[in-house]
Give the backbone structure.
Amino acid sequence: MSGPQIALLGAIAGFTIYLGLPIGRLRNPAPRLRAGLNAVAIGILIFLLWDVLTAAWEPTDAALGDRHWLTAAKDGLVLAAGLAVGLLGLVHYDRWIARRRAPPAPLSKGPGASAVTEELSPRARSRAANLALMIATGIGLHNAAEGLAIGNSAAKGEISLALLLVIGFGLHNATEGFGIVAPLAAEGERPSWGFLALLGLIGGGPTFVGTLIGRQVVNETLGIAFLGLAAGSILYVVIELLAVARRAGMKELVTWMILLGLLVGFATDAVVIAAGV
């Protein structure tokens, strides 16, 4: 299979994420629907967190089993660093965004002061939009690692495995698009098509980029680093979405919908498991 064909498969696997994004355009969803969408997203992301950490820890676990202590230490440190950067990086990013959102102190009482306020206010995004961007970023890092797996399989001549990975990751990414826009639906915000396109590019594009890199570079440490970053950012987002779920107050509905999200995650991962990953 030629390079362009492999790249096309990587693009297909990544951009199925757009299938779930239009849910964010729902007009004024009812409170129970908002809470349910948010909770399903939590379930999907909890599954992704488990899936990502399992894949990221596997090389370290194997090295420990083979008593390759230096390899195990190196892989473990790469994973720990990725987790720290992914988690704490978003904490600092969120704090920086909060400072930017804070209204600036008026410089004067003249007409220029209101003009400055009007100019700055369109640049400030809502918290729900920022959370959607964070989810897209975390999923994008995760999908970069998936792209590396597709590209590595093709580079080793395992074309049937690469095709199965494309199918499995494509199905998985379709549910991830829904998880990205859930905070917007939960807050009743209706994003523009342009913003949805940006979210899809951030979340799905790295699968394509990872496929291109993976076809040229077969490097396990690089994959661990991407997975660690993804796990840290997904963990942060899960914490944020749980806070939204608590504010909704619909404990029974939220619990059932989190369970549904988990089951959806396992169901869409079945094809990837069948591929032997």
Observations:
- The first helix runs from residue 3 to 15.
- The chain has ten helices and no strands.
